[in-house]
Structures are given as C-alpha cells and as structure tokens.
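[Q] Does anyone have a clean structure-token version of this?
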Amino acid sequence: MENKYVLEKRNSNIELLRIIAIFLIIMCHSTPWYGTEAASLPSYVDLGKAVSDWHIGGLMLFRYAGMVGDCLFFVASFWFLVDRDTVNKRKIFDIISDSFFISIIFLFFFVISDVELGETIIVEQFFPIYNRLNWFVGCYLIMYVIHPVINKIIKSFNKSVHLSVLLFFVVVYCVINLLCREDHLYYTSIVGCIGLYFVVAYVKKYMSETVKINNVRLLITGVIGIVLSFVLGNWLGLKIGNSYMIIAHRWCTFINPAVMLTAISMFYYFKGLEVKRSNVINEVASCSLLFYLFYENYLFRNYIKSDIWLWLYNKFSYNHIILIAFILSLIAFLVTLIVSLLYKYTLKNIVNKVGEVVLGYLLRIIGMLKQIILRI
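[A] Here you go.
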C-alpha cells in the first residue's frame, strides 16, 4: 500500500485497482466467523468446515476474494519496488504512527465503554505491528525495508538462476506446503512475501509482454483455479471428513498459485487501461492503509463484528447470507472511507508530525550507535 509520497507518480488505473483490492479485503472480513466468542453464537459460521449448503459455502469465496485483494496490494507494490533501491524513513514511521494511534483510539473507546479486556489484550494494542494484530502492515513494512537488499540479489541473477529460485518457492511453499496439514520448512507470511517478490520481479523482467498479451486468459485461468480450490476442498471435506478440510482451508492464502495468477493478471490488465487521472480515485486509494487499520482493528474485529452478525442473523436469518454479506461489505466500505478521510484531514497530520519528531530522535540514537560500533 503506497502512500502520498509516490501517489503523484501513479496513474489512476493502478489506484482504481487498489480500490478494488481494498473492497475485496473488506468482503473477506465481512463474513460471520470473526470474534473472540463468536463460536458460541448462533450467527457463527465455521468456514473451516465443509458444508453442503451452498449459501454458507459460498462465503468461502469471500475469503478467497480477500486473499486476491492482499495479493493485489503486494503485486502492485512489489512491481514498483523492484526498480527502487531507496527507503523513505518518514514513510515507515508514518505507517507505524498511524497503526499505533488508530489502535489506541479503539482501545480508548473500548475502555470508556467498560468492555472487559484482559491485561494482555490491552498491552498488545500499544504494539499492534509487533504483536501481529495487523499482519499485512507488518509484512509490508518488512518488505519495504529489505527490498533494496532483495533487489541486489535479484540483479546478481541471470534468467536461469532467477527461474530456479522462483520454481523452488512455488513447488516447496505454494504446492507441497499447502498440501500438508500445517506449515513446514519454516514457512511464515514474510517467507510468502519474499517468494512473491521474486515471482513479481521475474514476471516484470522476463514475461511482461507475454502476461500483457494473455492477461485476460490468465485471469480466467486464475479465477477458475480459485473456484476449483474451493469446490474440490469442500467436496473432499464432505466425502473424506472435515479433518481433510484443514488442508483445503490452507489453500485460501495469498500464495495459492491460482490467487497469485489472478492478482498478477489483474494488475497487468489494469496497468494497460487508459484511465485519466482522477483526484477522486486517487484520494480514495490514498486511504487504502487506513481502510485496513480501521476495519481490521483487532478490537473491532473480535468484539464488534460478531455482534453485528448476531443482529443480522436475528433480523434476516441466513437464507440470503451471501447477499447480506455483500451489502454489509458495501456499507462497511463507505463507512470506513468516511472515517478514513476524517482521520486523514484531522488527526493524521498531528500523528505524523509527532512520529516525525520521534523519528528524528531515533535516527540520532541510531547514528550514535553506528559510530560507537564502527570504532570497535
């Protein structure tokens, strides 16, 4: 999720893609299986189990939509980072300060509302990135910091070596690892991001024309692959048992080859669109990180969303749950957009200025430590 420092260099076609990506993510997080105590509620739906009711099972496609959205953000960001070898320190601290302050805002309202929160949960809100309360933000920050090093490694590769690294990642982590009941070979989300970075770099360097010419076919293939991942996993879960569904559930990830293919082909499709520069589109897209920080806040996700779905369940039942989830996604998108814009033009400037001051002190301390270490 790029911010205002590079926004002016982007055409509105890529920013339009970012808006679509954030809506896909909101769709994923507008399903009734979130919440600390949600499993005890009649409105809860366990998307980790195979179901014969397609109304319920179809919600799994909402989760896949979220994975495509996450992957789109990574692909769009990595595509530009591949040709950049610098790191904007202020950008890093702006993201960290926004993440911290928004987390504290939610904590404040929950505390004054007398919501019972454990001591551990309260402390975690002060360190949202460290405690992986927003996994995407943490992964993106790490990738942004280390991308110059990865670029140097990629520049040392010839086409054959680069392809070998790419195939190793795809076979080991995107195929073998996803066929197991749990992660193997030390897989983490950051490993997935690094592997995806190598994939995007290879496509940009050696396959741009091929993907550009065939992006519609590749997009259709990727979408079919996503649907098959869901249908096959659900069918095997019904035939063999939900123990197998643990594996099928793991296919819903941003490193699923079908998800990566869909995201990359969508990126190239939008990259080729002629969309005139639109201040409205660019303004909405500039709030992409804020969308995530507000709607996916830990406290809101675990304590409020389950209450919303309980009300929807009692009010409408689940006969049209897919339609309800989609309408909820639209409402959530609009409300979060308004909240994000209000924050951006009120508190954000103050928060970022404070972060800038903190950044100055930290850079001085780091500079002093470097000098001391270099003298040893």
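[Q] Thanks! Anything notable?
[A] The chain has a mean pLDDT of 88.
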